Amino acid sequence: MTVESLLKEVVLLTESEGLMKGCEILLEVDDTPLSVSIDVKQIKQVILNMVKNAMDAIEEVGEEHTGMIRIKTATENNFVQITIADNGRGMDHNTLVRLFDPFFTTKESGTGLGLSVSYRIIKNHGGTISVDSQKGEGTSFMIKLPLVF
Ligand SMILES: Nc1ncnc2c1ncn2[C@@H]1O[C@H](COP(=O)(O)OP(=O)(O)OP(=O)(O)O)[C@@H](O)[C@H]1O
Ligand SMILES: [Mg+2]
């Protein structure tokens, strides 16, 4: 499975919802295909949750805000790094420290399971998740997965 095809599928699945919510989804991927050995369903679930979280964070800023979600890839040593960056509401310290806790949510209808499950899935794949967020500015999630050659 290549990372590009997986990300393209996720964009196809989320694009129309994004447009309805006033956010554009940009995909910037390398031309060279990057192969990963993954459980496609699981990794798709991880990326989908992150894109949905990004849309929610953009929606929470307000209607007049132009939402932007950038998904890009880069390679580093034997890993591919997938970055999902949004210009949504960002997170405060209290949210940042509890982000991956099961059942932690700030949403009325959230389960708070999205990121805790994602964390486990990526860990089981020999990868890592990290996050960078500024309140009022936006959030970036970085997923690293081992490449296969
Ligand atoms: N991109 C983001 N911008 C701002 N806050 C975020 C972002 N991603 C996650 N969060 C915060 O982290 C919390 C936990 O996210 P998680 O995906 O685990 O659960 P959820 O989105 O609340 O619920 P569910 O995934 O079931 O819809 C969210 O409620 C939100 O406060
Ligand atoms: Mg979620």
Automatic annotation (TrEMBL):
Domain (Histidine kinase) ranges: 1-149
Domain of life: Bacteria
EC top class named in words: transferase
Enzyme Commission number(s) of this protein: 2.7.13.3
Catalytically driven reaction(s): ATP + protein L-histidine = ADP + protein N-phospho-L-histidine
Residue spans crossing the bilayer: none
Pfam families on file: HATPase_c (PF02518)
InterPro entries found in the cross-reference section: HATPase_C_sf, HATPase_dom, His_kinase_dom, Sig_transdc_His_kin-like_C
Keywords of the record: ATP-binding, Kinase, Nucleotide-binding, Phosphoprotein, Transferase, Two-component regulatory system
GO molecular function list: ATP binding; protein histidine kinase activity
Gene Ontology process terms (BP): phosphorelay signal transduction system
Protein name listed in UniProt: histidine kinase
Species whose genome carries this gene: Paenibacillus barcinonensis
